[in-house]
Amino acid sequence: MQRRRFLHVLQDNEMERKRFPGLTKEAFVADTDQKALDSLKKIPLLPTVVQKFYEHGFDRWIYCWNMAMSVRCSPTQYKTIYEINRECCAILDMPEPEIYLTGNPFPNAFAGGVERPYIVLRSSIIDTLNDEELFHLIGHELGHIKSGHILYFSVATVLIPIMELIARRTFGLGDAAQVALYAAFFEWMRQAEISADRAGLLCAQDFQLSARSNLMLTSGPNRLAHESSVEAFQDQARMYQDMDFFDSIGKLLISLNYSLWASHPMPVHRTQELEKWFLHGGYERILKGNYIREQVG
After folding, report:
1. Nearest in space to 2 (alpha carbons), one of 223, 247, 187, 150
2. Is the pLDDT of residue 291 over 90?
């Protein structure tokens, strides 16, 4: 029996997912995400960078490039992806962004578009995750959109390389400010992933599904995927977190070398952060309707 089970008609899915009317980003955004964003906004160089992003029309250029290079999903084009996206938007109570599929052998997905939000799934991620696991993945990307992450993601992706070129022309006079901006950007980007994983869980509505999605993203597509174990992966994440003093020194060195310039947290770390939120009742409170809602009127 194959691991993959296709949802030809989403309404026939055996799991009926709960929706969260009026859900706000404050209901699931991690405190570390908000704190890192507040620190990023205090960097004096940021307003200039954001202004240049809009002045040069980078958002429109990236949107057009994506449309030219990807296939847009619809009721008549990759319907399964379209329907999962639509259901996840209903769960999170948010407008539907465009969703695309593009050919790429490295499994991943991303959200973009400040003015016209969209999600792009790579073809290899469709081969890596089953349909139910795609609820977590697509919910994760929707979480980035709903949380307002896209502007700063786009700025970091497009303008930081340009700033590096400018620094070379000014003989490095802006280096100190740029290093501070880089570090703040990457710290916030890592914390933003924690918030987005929570949105993914809200859409998957099964912690094992969400944990398995992270496991499959970490191991990648392989013919032995049926031998994977979510429980073992969670044990690995806890073991990493609870290492003794001497091992912790190694973790610190890894953090200094890897995490400073990494846009995503380590897979075992983000898996445990999601487990903590789940076990400490954050997910359960929202499931029971106890969350911050949009103010009406």
Report:
1. 223
2. yes
206's CB contacts (< 8 A; 6+ apart) are 15, 132
62-120 pLDDT, tens digit each: 999 999 999 999 999 999 999 999 999 999 999 999 999 999 999 999 999 999 999 99
10 belongs to a structural domain: no
Please, which pLDDT band fits residue 248 given cuts at 50, 70 and 90? Answer: low
pTM of the model: 0.86
SS3 track for the chain: CCCCCCCCCHHHCCCCCCCCCCECHHHCCCHHHHHHHHHHHCCCCHHHHHHHHHHCCHHHHHHHHHHHHCEECECCECHHHHHHHHHHHHHHCCCCCEEEEECCCCCCEEEECCCCCEEEEEHHHHHHCCHHHHHHHHHHHHHHHHCCCHHHHHHHHHHHHHHHHHHHHCCCCCHHHHHHHHHHHHHHHHHHHHHHHHHHHHHHCCHHHHHHHHHHHHHCCCCCHHHCCHHHHHHHHHHHHCCCHHHHHHHHHHHHHHHHHCCCCCHHHHHHHHHHHHHCCHHHHHHCCCCCECCCC
Average pLDDT for the chain: 85
Res. 7: pLDDT tops 50: no
Beta bridge partners of 93: none
Q: Is residue 2 part of a domain?
A: no
pLDDT tens for each residue of 231-241: 999 998 888 77
Q: Domain count of the chain?
A: 1
What is the span of the domain harbouring residue 180?
Answer: 16-287
Closest CA to 155 of 136, 182, 128: 182
- Looking at residue 5, its pLDDT comes to 40
Residue 132 lies in a domain: yes
User: Is 152 part of any domain?
Assistant: yes
